[in-house]
Write a structure and sequence with these properties.
The chain has 403 residues and is of the alpha/beta class. The protein has two domains: 2-151, ATPase, nucleotide binding domain (Nucleotidyltransferase, domain 5, 2-Layer Sandwich); 200-388, 2-Layer Sandwich (Nucleotidyltransferase, domain 5), CATH 3.30.420.40. The chain contains 15 helices and 14 strands. The protein has helices at residues 64-76, 111-119, 128-141, 161-164, 171-176, 185-199, 253-261, 265-274, 277-282, 287-295, 299-323, 333-338, 340-347, 359-363, 388-401, and strands at residues 2-8, 13-19, 24-32, 39-46, 52-59, 89-96, 107-108, 146-151, 208-213, 217-223, 226-230, 328-332, 370-371, 380-383. The strands form two sheets. The protein has an eight-stranded mixed β-sheet, sandwiched between helices. A hairpin with a 4-residue loop joins strand 2 and strand 3. Helix 1 crosses helix 3, helix 10 packs across helix 11 and helix 11 packs across helix 13. The radius of gyration is 21 Å and the shape is globular. The protein starts with a strand and ends with a helix. It binds adenosine-5'-diphosphate (ADP). Residues 214-216, 243, 286-288, 333-335, 338-339 line the site of adenosine-5'-diphosphate.
């Protein structure tokens, strides 16, 4: 069965077509700079020998509809394509950033779901409108396929009230649904399942801390396999230091910036979301560059790296206390999977919690799941490559089969 996974952003569409019978990627790609003068398209088809055929195009893509049509044309094309007709695609799995409290799990999309998605736009004005556009277009272009929504927030819906409420007037939760939601749910869920398989223990018997360090970054505490706390909040701005986002700051900071520097709400939003984090501290949001700069003596890069890892370490401590005992700590995403230096700094000095990584195992690079802790470490420290698209495809398949 073929499942197309679509991740629609405000000016981009990322896609991946899976053959679920073989758990194989048939084709993938991204359309970028939609609506700009010159757009970009990168398409990759997996060949029989496992290598891939790549096609890049610089074309003007006026809107998302044109973008998805171009993707379909490439999927059908005799050279770059992998299907003969659209109806071969049984389902389209859509990544949806915010499901609010309406969605605790993956949902087959019908009119009721669309209405609930529209209601949730105010919770994620930067992301949900594009996700909705992607669904609407996909329904037109693939009328025979089942459309499924997979939410970044759903995995965190098991978090108890004491962890998700903010200490502000309770009516703001009751009437406006202002609370912590958490994001990156598909990634946290995916690596948790992989960790259980790797450790040979049922997920329901494991206490885990999962650490997703990509451009965005978040952590989750899982008791008996269920999420009980996470670092991002009502929006993806809270928690850890990220590429361009501040993570936790004093909530009074916006008032100070407005009162003393005359900044508007829009300026402050941009400052905290786009100009802060690693970029704000040392001029780049690419962790490879941060480490290179630090290695050549740049003091701002040094402090950026320290602050980044210190924040992760604080959350490890907090979540250890929340869980009261830990089986495994899991690093994932671009930085978590590829930076031994970040992993080392995050775990440094935690042997008192039973967390001790082996320098040689930590420095070995590999694309597969690995245990980087010393053999006697009570907590297994794992590096697990995430695959959010595949997880969305799996969830889509499950939703399809349980209809
Ligand atoms: P996204 O959230 O956009 O999916 P990724 O998970 O791909 O992001 O992570 C992007 C981050 O991973 C970037 O900060 C990049 O610098 C970092 N990264 C990738 N490879 C390495 C590496 N070898 N060492 C350190 N950081 C890396």
């Amino acid at each position: 069965m073929k499942i197309l996974v679509i991740n629609t952003g405000s000016s981009s569409i990322k896609y991946e077509l899976f053959d679920m019978g073989r758990s194989a990627v048939l084709a993938s790609g991204i359309v970028e700079r939609i609506g700009e003068k010159s757009g970009n398209l990168t398409h990759s088809k997996t060949l029989a020998d496992g290598t891939s055929l790549k096609r890049t195009e610089s074309v003007s893509i006026p809107d998302h509809r044109a973008g998805l049509k171009r993707i379909v044309a490439l999927l059908l094309n005799s050279e770059t394509g992998v299907i003969r007709k659209r109806s071969e695609i049984a389902a389209v799995g859509h990544r949806v950033v915010h499901g609010g409290e309406d969605f605790h799990s993956t949902s087959v999309i019908d009119e009721k779901v669309m209405e609930a998605l529209r209601q949730n736009v105010r919770l994620a004005p930067l992301h949900n409108p594009a996700n909705i556009t992607g669904i609407e277009i996909s329904r037109d272009i693939f009328p025979e396929a089942v459309q499924v929504a997979v939410f970044d927030t759903a995995f965190h819906q098991t978090i108890p009230m004491k962890a998700f409420l903010y200490a502000i007037p309770i009516e703001l939760y009751e009437n406006e649904k202002i609370r912590k939601y958490g994001f990156h749910g598909t990634s946290h869920a995916y690596v948790a399942e992989k960790a259980a398989l790797f450790l040979g223990v049922a997920l329901e018997e494991l206490n885990l801390i999962t650490i997703h360090l990509g451009n965005g970054a978040s952590m989750a505490a899982l008791r008996n396999g269920k999420c009980v706390d996470t670092s991002m909040g009502m929006t993806p701005l809270g928690g850890l230091v990220m590429g361009t986002r501040s993570g936790d700051v004093d909530p009074a900071l916006p008032f100070f910036l407005a009162d003393n520097l005359g900044m508007s709400l829009k300026d402050i939003d941009k400052l905290l979301n786009e100009k802060s984090g690693l970029k704000g501290l040392c001029g780049t949001n690419d962790m490879r560059e941060v480490i290179e700069k630090r290695n050549s003596g740049d003091e701002r890069a040094q402090i950026a790296l320290e602050l980044y890892c210190y924040r992760v370490k604080k959350y490890i401590g907090a979540y250890f206390a929340v869980l009261g005992g830990l089986d495994s700590l899991v690093f994932t995403a671009g930085i978590g999977e590829n930076s031994p230096e970040v992993r080392r700094l995050c775990c440094e000095g935690l042997s008192g919690l039973g967390i001790q990584i082996d320098p040689e195992r930590n420095n070995r690079s590999a694309d597969e799941i690995r245990d980087i802790s010393v053999p006697e470490s009570p907590v297994r420290v794992l590096v697990i490559p995430t695959d959010e698209e595949f997880k969305i495809a799996q969830e889509t398949l499950k939703a399809l089969q349980s209809r």
